[in-house]
Amino acid sequence: MRIIRVDNYDEMSKKAADLVASQMILKHNSVLGLATGDTPIGMYKELIKLYNEKKIDFSDVRSFNLDEYYGISKENNQSYYYYMMNNLFNHVNMRKENINILDGKTDNVALECLNYEKRIKEVGGIDIQVLGIGVNGHIGFNEPNVNFESETHLVDLDQKTIESNSRFFKSIEEVPKSALSMGIKTIMQSKVIVLLANGEAKAEAIAKTVNGKICPEVQASILQLHNNVNIIVDKAAAKLLKSSDK
Ligand code: PGA
Fold first, then answer.
1. Residue nearest to atom 8 of ligand 1 (CA)
2. From the CA of 142, how far away is ligand 1's center (Å)?
3. Residues 142, 150: contact at Cβ < 8 Å?
4. Torsion angle of alpha carbons 119, 122, 127, 130, nearest 10°?
5. What's the rounded Cα separation, in Å, for the pair 142 and 23?
6. Is the pLDDT of residue 243 over 90?
7. Would the pLDDT of 244 be above 90?
8. Which of 55, 75, 108, 234 could bond to 198 as cystine, CB 3.0-4.6 Å?
9. Closest ligand 1 atom, CA of 202?
10. What's the average model confidence in pLDDT over 162-183?
11. Where are the domains of the chain?
12. Angle between the N-to-C axes of helices 41-52 and 9-26, in degrees from 0 to 180, rounded to the nearest 10
């Protein structure tokens, strides 16, 4: 694991955007694995800036998002489809046919998940996967105790995740109780992983990810076994790391 310590959210966002941008420059048709939530919003803003400065080009880029709420349509402003269009795709020259986001309204979950895995394999796998992390150590929507061997699948959301994500909804009752998510196996097959974390609320999850036992209770702990992981943490999220953690 490579720990990149930064002072604040803006620096984290810039650093993450630089990693993604360099991947795109080195391979014009890169396959990006993308995340949603509050954490990567600044990174997307930086990527849009780099695009406007003509430093990066999305015309041949393919993307796969980590997850989507189950039972929510694309048009719903809480869907991750809506988030991605709003925060990135509407502002860059990404081709619609190159955007892959799980369909939260699918009437055949098994087929939707199987096809997603198939499409990832068809394009040669994910070159760089961006991840946030949940307060409970989840990556994607792989909640504590999900089987490490899982590929894209339907998951029940953990109570902590429901509580944490209720800030985006009018009430906690409106938060979906399940989601479609790439599995740990899918994530681990990405060539490069960039995990972003900021704020004190993530400090414990980050400490367990870096120094804890590798166990399904802390899904991100499996990343200790990946050979190209970059963890970009601001001061608050790095609070429980040892100074010797590199
Ligand atoms: P956040 O979510 O970026 O909104 O904190 C991260 C996650 O739950 O993976």
1. 134
2. 12
3. yes
4. 10
5. 26
6. no
7. no
8. 234
9. 5
10. 94
11. 2-231
12. 50
| pLDDT tens sequence across 81-111 | 999 999 999 999 999 999 999 999 999 999 9
106-142 residue pLDDT tens: 999 999 999 999 999 999 999 999 999 999 999 999 9
Model pLDDT for residues 19-75, shown as the tens digit of each residue: 999 999 999 999 999 999 999 999 999 999 999 999 999 999 999 999 999 999 999
Residues 197, 133 contacting (CB under 8 angstroms)? yes
Name every protein residue with a CB atom under 6 angstroms from any ligand 1 atom: 37-39, 132-134
**Residue 87 tokens, joined:** 């925060």
- Which residue has its alpha carbon closest to ligand 1 atom 2? 37
Question: Is 2-231 assigned to CATH 3.30.720.10?
Answer: no
Averaged pLDDT score across all residues of the chain: 97
Which residues are tagged catalytic? 67, 136, 138, 143
165 Cα–ligand 1 center, Å:
8
Ligand 1 centroid – CA 36 distance (Å): 7
pTM: 0.97
Atom of ligand 1 nearest to the CA of 139: 9
Mutate which of 13, 34, 36, 39 for ligand 1 pocket (most atoms within 8 A of beta carbon): 39
